[in-house]
Every structure is written in C-alpha cells, then in structure tokens.
Amino acid sequence: RKISQGFAERINEEKAETGGGTPSVAIAYDNRRDSDLFAFEAACVFAANGIRVELFDTLSATPLLSFAVRELHTDAGVVVTASHNNKAYNGYKIYDRHGCQCMPGDARKVADKIDRVDMWTGVKTVAGKYTKGRTAAERTALAAEEEPLISLIGEAVTRQYTDHVRAESKTAGACRDIRVVYTPLNGTGNLLVRRILTDAEIGDLIIVPEQENPDPDFTTCPEPNPEKPGALNLGLALCEKRKAAGAAPDLLLGTDPDADRLGAAVFHDGGYVRLSGNQVGILLLDYVVACRERDGTMPDRPVFVTTIVSTPLTGEMAKRRGIETRKVLTGFKNIGDQMNALEAVGEESRYIFGFEESCGYNSGVYARDKDAQDAALLLCEAAGVQKSRGKTLLDRMDELYAEYGFYIDGLDEFVRPGEKGMREIAAIMGQLREPKTMDAFSAVVVATTDFESGVHTSYKLGGRVEKSPVAGIPSSNVIEFDLADGCKVLARPSGTEPKLKIYYTGVGKTEADARKAIERMRAEVAKIAVKAEQGGKDGEV
Predict the structure, then answer these.
(1) Contact, 2 vs 111, CB < 8 A?
(2) What is the pLDDT of residues 76-85, one digit of tens each?
(3) Is 377:165 a contact under the CB 8 Å cutoff?
(4) Are strands 204-207 and 150-153 parallel, antiparallel or unpaired?
(5) Residue 372 contacts residue 256 (beta carbons within 8 Å)
(6) CA distances from 219 to 2, 86, 90, 222, 234 (A)
(7) Mean pLDDT over each residue of the chain, to the nearest integer
(8) Catalytic positions
(9) Which contacts (CB < 8 Å, 24+ apart) does range 534-541 have?
(10) What is the spatial distance between Cα 280 and Cα 275, in angstroms, rounded to a whole number?
(11) What is the pLDDT of residues 424-472, one digit of tens each?
(12) Is 365 exposed, middle or buried (0-12, 13-18, 19+ CB in 10 A)?
C-alpha cells in the first residue's frame, strides 16, 4: 500500500503537469504467493487516489502488461512479480505510459514519493469494505463491481496481444514438422505459449506435467530461472523419455514464472544441448535478418539493440549486414527506451530486434519489455527452417562460428549477502578499477570502459593513452576490459540480488581456444577478488 500510494501521488502529479484529466493505471500479477492480494490492494489504493484502474482478472505475463498499458492508453502500469527469482521473493515492477519499465530518473521520482509516505497514516485505500471473510478473487470481483474506478481486463486484450505476437511470424508453416517439449516452470506462460505455438501449427507440443499449473512454491524447480542449468531438468528428462520411445523432440523450451524469459535446448547428434542466452540471441537475430532480407521487409536504416554485457558477436553480424547496433545498459527497459526514442520521431519501424544475454528477446514494438512468447515462436520457426535443410540450430551456430569466429560466453557470480557482502562487492569493484589490476591479465589490456565515470581509455603502443567519453549510456557501476586477443571481461553488481556478476567473452579460432581463454580469465579475476577481500594483499584463490 505504501508503494502504491507513492506511485499514485507521482502519477497524479505527472498527469497534472501534462494537462490533467483522469489518470489511469493497468495492473497485472503472476503466480507468486499473494500476488493476487497485492494486486488487489494496489488497485484499491490507486482508486482511493482518484486513479482509474484496469486490473487483469487472472494471472498474466509481464509482456502482456506492457502491451495492455499501450493498448488501453493508461498512464502507468504495475505488475506484481519476482520474475525468475526463487519462491522467497515477490516484487513490484512499475511502467510508464509507453509500457516501458520506468527509467532511473522517473523511478527516483517515484521512490522519493514512496519514501515520504507514512505507511500507517499516509495511505488512502478503499479496500476495507471488500476484504472481510472473502477470498482474493471474491474481493477483486466485488471491488470491480462496486468501485467505479476499478475495471477488470478480460480476454479481449489477451487476444489482441497474441494477435500481435503471431504477426511477428516470419515463415508460415515453418513449425509444422517440429516437436517441442515445453515447461512454463509453474508460471504464467502455460496458456499463452501453448496458444501461440498451437496457432503456428506446431507439429507436436508436449507440456512437462509437473510444471504445467501455477505453483507459488515451485516444488519441482526451486530456482525457476531458465538461465540456470537445473531449471530445465524435468524437461530434459521428458525429452529423453520421448527419444527412447522413438519420437525425439527437436526443442525443449522453458519460460520463467512471468513469461518474459526463454530458455532452450536443442536435439543434436543424438543428445540435448543447452543454448545459452547469447546463443539464442545470435540465432534469433540471424533468423530475423535472413527472413527480412528474403521477404524484402528490411527497413531503411534498421536498428538492432543489445546490452553491454551481451555477446559482441551479434554486433559483428549486424555490422556486416548494414544494420545499426545500439548498445545499452543491462535491463530490458533500456532496450524498450530505444524503441520509445524511435517512436518519438516516427521511426519505430526501424527496430528489428532486441535482446539481452539473460534470456530476454523481442522482435516487435507492440510491447516495451522482453517477451518469451515472441521468442518461443521465432525459435521454433528458425528450428523448422533448419530442419528443412537437414540441419539443427546447433549446425547453424557452427556455420556462424565458422564465418565470424568462436565467441563463447561465461558468467561468474560472487554471492555476498548482507551489509558485509555489500562492502565486499564494493571492494572487488574498487580493486578492478585499480590501474595495476591490468597487469593481472595474461593478455594485454588494450582498453577499459568505466561506465560509472563515463570514461573509455585506450592503451596504445609506446605507452600512449587516449581517453574519451562514453556516449549515450548513463552512469552505472560497471567496468569492462578489452583484451588484445579479442576477449572481454565485464563486472557489475546485480541490481536485484546480493551478488557481483562477472561476464566473460572468449574469442578463438576454435571452440577449445575460446573456452580456454574463459578459464584463463576466470582464474585471473578470482585472484583479483581474493586480493580485494584481503584488503589489497596478494593471496591464494
């Protein structure tokens, strides 16, 4: 309620600044424990503050909320979800009138309002008359019936959303020969992904039964994150069972609880191979570009958007095809903000694809967030096109590696909980920023980019140093090292969890060379971390 009160005050303030009228907000929720209760309470606070509420009548995916904000022309949006995090968490995501998660400047204004709210005396709500002795569903239905400012969003908006996702299809009939095992990981993707793939005439769609229906405890998958190796274990077991019966699925797909992230594995050479988030992004960009070139639908001055932590291979691919690459900070809101910038000048059709390595993808401008439904459709189509060639998506990856070189990614997470952990993370980041740290890398550092200070530094032969500003990217606590062998190391504290994330890009003429480079960098960064946590003294890993 406190959060909703602060957000309501900011919505009303902004509406007054832009000409007045009745402000509005769309609200969605997922399968987390008490998400429906929190959504109802938020609706009652907004209504008490004179804000019209459009509230989903059932649990819904995050990209559907982004679409609804745009479709219903509301001034803001809220989705109650903890996305891919474990069952202990829930969360409150806020969206602007474009259906994009609020950018830092706007988010700070909302946070300032929230901080000023006294949670005991400062909150307005109409909830009291609907709550006593009723279930969450009964409360919501009664409020929507009796409260003039609260309305329920029904099936019509969901249908419009799925129509837009289907419109992103690039090859009609490409899915007809594809067998897919799919797990919604007990989240919101079940009905949406099934509808999208069924409409695409998927050859065979098998749902992992233990993870089909909503479960806030995620009993069979404590960490429901498609990025994590164990998240798709039940799906892989079902694939193996089907393979033993003589009908091996071509793909395994998994979506996180709010259905904005997609994980995948491919049947290749008799077994199942997990695709990284970067590999899916590479394959989808390749597929989208090939189809647009084939069909003559590539726009003038096309734009591809990715994040600074995602694979640089996609930038090389785009460059060779005459496509502009825009790099942004981590978080799909920054990709959505680029869509907004294009829309503001009437050029949103230039956007062809956006992705971040943490399994987030979107090929359309109908929403301003990552969309696992869109990604699932396109990946199935891409697999179908490769199957018609007698190949798999892994074969296509190998073709791309042969053309561009092997770009292999790695990720380390230094988990440091609590206040002490925050100090330890800060110490490691501080150590990485020490000039002498560059000597720790066995390959020569040719450039560093400190996104916090906004300075890019190039190290030339003869000891010459050139500094230049980092253009177009806001300040953020991130540092990147570019090595002479083409490899990269990038470090940043997580924005949502108590951990430091280290991203590696290994580059080589062979996969073995690239993986060896990652292991080398991993060992070197581990030594730097130990030194930082020992107060700058050299120590053993």
Answers:
(1) no
(2) 999 999 999 8
(3) yes
(4) unpaired
(5) yes
(6) 31, 11, 16, 6, 12
(7) 95
(8) 83
(9) 535/427, 536/431
(10) 6
(11) 999 999 999 998 888 889 889 999 999 999 999 999 877 788 999 998 8
(12) buried
**Token reading at 506:** 């290994």
| Residue listed under structure tokens 């009138």 | 97
Query: Would you state the pLDDT for residue 328?
Result: 96
CA–CA gap between residue 246 and residue 251 (Å, rounded)? 15
Distances in Å between the Cα of 526 and the Cα atoms of 78, 368, 449 are 39, 37, 20
- Cβ–Cβ < 8 Å for 487, 501: no
Whether the CB-CB separation of 410 and 511 falls below 8 Å is answered with no
Sheet hosting strand 52-56, strand order edge to edge:
92-95, 76-80, 24-29, 52-56, 150-153
The answer to whether residues 265 and 93 touch, using CB atoms and an 8 Å cutoff, is no
Which amino acid is residue 23, in one-letter code? P
Question: Phi, psi at residue 540, to the nearest 5°?
Answer: -80, 150
Q: What's the rounded Cα separation, in Å, for the pair 175 and 197?
A: 8
- pLDDT per residue as tens digits for the range 480-529: 999 999 999 999 998 878 899 999 999 999 999 999 999 999 999 999 99
CB 114 within 8 A of CB 1: no
Tokens of 369: 């967030």
Neighbour count for residue 411 (Cβ, 10 Å): 17
Give the global pTM. Answer: 0.93
User: Strand order in 479-483's β-sheet?
Assistant: 406-415, 499-508, 488-493, 479-483, 445-450, 455-459, 465-469
Sheet with 351-356, side-by-side order of all strands: 324-328, 303-307, 351-356, 360-362
352 closest CA partner among 288, 281, 277: 288
Which 3 state secondary structure label does DSSP give 238?
A: helix
Tokens at 189, concatenated: 């993707």
Q: Scanning the structure block, which residue is given the tokens 């996969």? A: 511
189 three-class SS = helix
Q: What value does the CA radius of gyration of the chain take, rounded to a whole number of Å?
A: 24
Residue 268 CA to its chain's centroid (Å): 26
433 alpha-carbon distance from chain centroid: 28
User: Judging by DSSP bridges, how do beta strands 406-415 and 479-483 pair with one another?
Assistant: unpaired
Burial class (CB in 10 A: 0-12, 13-18, 19+), 433: middle
**Residue 391 has which token pair?**
């190949």
Nearest to 62 by CA among 92, 25, 40: 92
Q: What is the DSSP string of 330-394?
A: SSHHHHHHHHHHHHHTT-GGGEEEEEETTTEEE--SS-SS--HHHHHHHHHHHHHHHHHTT--HH
Distances (CA, A) of 246 to 242, 270, 384: 7, 12, 19
